[in-house]
Amino acid sequence: MRKYSVFALAREAMRAHKGWEQQWTSPEPKSEYDVIIVGAGGHGLATAYYLAKEHGITNVAVLEKGWLGGGNTGRNTTIIRSNYLYDESAGIYEHAVKLWEGLSQDLNYNVMYSARGVMMLAHNIHDVQVFKRHIHANRLNGIDNEWLTPEQVKEFCPPINLSADARYPIIGAALQRRGGTARHDAVAWGYARAAADRGVHIIQNCEVTGVRRAANGAVVGVDTNRGPINAKKVGVVAAGHTSVIMNMADVRMPLESYPLQALVSEPVKPLIPCVIMSNTVHAYISQSDKGEMVIGAGTDQYTSYSQTGGLHIINHTLDAICEMFPVLTRLKMLRSWGGIVDVTPDRSPILAKTPVPGLYVNCGWGTGGFKATPGSGNVFAHTIARDEPHRINAPFTIERFTSGRLIDEAAAAAVAH
Amino acid sequence: MLLIKCPYCEDERPELEFRNAGEAHLVRANPIVDQSDDDFAAFLYFRQNPKGLQFERWRHIHGCGRFFNAVRDSVSDKFLTVYKAGEPKPNVEQLVTRGTTPAEAVVESPAPRTPRTKKAEA
């Protein structure tokens, strides 16, 4: 793989850009691999990359039924933060933020990580109490998070509406300065390029149709629309379709799949300098480098695999956005779309071994998995390579729903996140 | 937004009047103390989450307030049928082959419309 650098750019500029290599190849599937990863989204590709880089396992296939990064990796609102309440969550999300900080260098691919700050707005006394508790808990875990007065909110994000007449007036905010955004497509492409360079096969348009098991129950491979592929270890990283894949191995999951929507506006001049989140009025907004307002809405109330949600859901979010930013009321929305997110009862993920030997699962990221992409892939690769969880993901088991040791971020945030 | 028929009100109403209440036909053990932890976890947390036809509960919370069950395709979001709480699971295969779902009936045989120009002439 030729390294990307300013010198490479200059060299190619001199010869009409004819020397750029393909970023990854599309090999035919072999009959056997050491490890198969099901799903070439950010988490799956990151898992393959860290398997190759940190554990020396390069005989790996990443199977993708569509195109890589075409699921939730390409559909999210690219928010990165680690200010979660519980120690277990803080551990895994902060692990991810630390990897984000060096990811472009590590992958030799500009993922455009921008630590522009994530500001979570408080609209009532309950919000204030919850966020202050979060701030204290985060600081005990070594994670930056600070309280802003309304004046400081306005200073940090000038277009915001501080009017006391607002239906939900802004009375403060929690700010994580190291939070921000990254370019989601570049994350998938960067991991794909770096993994393929280390020998990983990325096989697109290859849908898993069955999980093959030996007489003793252990995994021996998968069936696909391009024929059977053998592997003694299979990692399922299939987001909204995890229940479907796990059902092929007769494992029922504590998951439900919901449509989650996002939308972008027409591009305008730089206006919003940070990420704004409001759990209370349910709105998420940031501005992309292209100038579009990137807006996240909520999930529909019913489970679905339709990759489309109800119009009233995004309408509700736009009502909130317009009240927070009256300057945006005349802005036209260009596109809206939906993705299918797999939600656990406690809104924390599952990264674990399963009751089936050789079968591993990384799922349940619900409405907020993008931020965890590097950390998730890193500890999941460890789990697959060593057949035991990393210290960081050890609490994120399936068994916690039987033992009752939940990591209840659902109750902590009282909202999808 | 979904259009949902309440089997009690016998009317199709917008989704905003309803609250989805998850997978249907989950039965709590009685007495519950005799249940193993695994069985209780299965009842409380583990779900089929199928891609295709699913049985689900709805509550007509801004209408009659009653719970009922529905069969819906989780890919097309189309309802095959709705039925009252306590009624047995309908035979899904029969529903699919007959194709007599309320939603499909509406799509396939729209009420004949007279074009406006003709109406003006009449």
Automatic annotation (TrEMBL), chain A:
GO BP annotations, alphabetical order: tetrahydrofolate metabolic process
GO cellular component: cytoplasm
Subcellular location: Cytoplasm
Domain Rhodanese: 35-79
Cofactor: FMN; FAD
Main location as per UniProt: cytoplasm
Keywords: Cytoplasm, FAD, Flavoprotein, FMN, Nucleotide-binding, Oxidoreductase
Family: Belongs to the SoxB family.
Protein name, as recorded: Sarcosine oxidase subunit beta
TrEMBL record, chain B:
GO biological process, one term: tetrahydrofolate metabolic process
Family matches, as Pfam families: SoxD (PF04267)
GO molecular function term, any single one: sarcosine oxidase activity
Segments for region (Disordered): 99-122
Highest taxon above the source species: Bacteria
Gene3D superfamilies with a match to the protein in the record: Folate-binding superfamily (3.30.2270.10)
Record protein name field: Sarcosine oxidase subunit delta
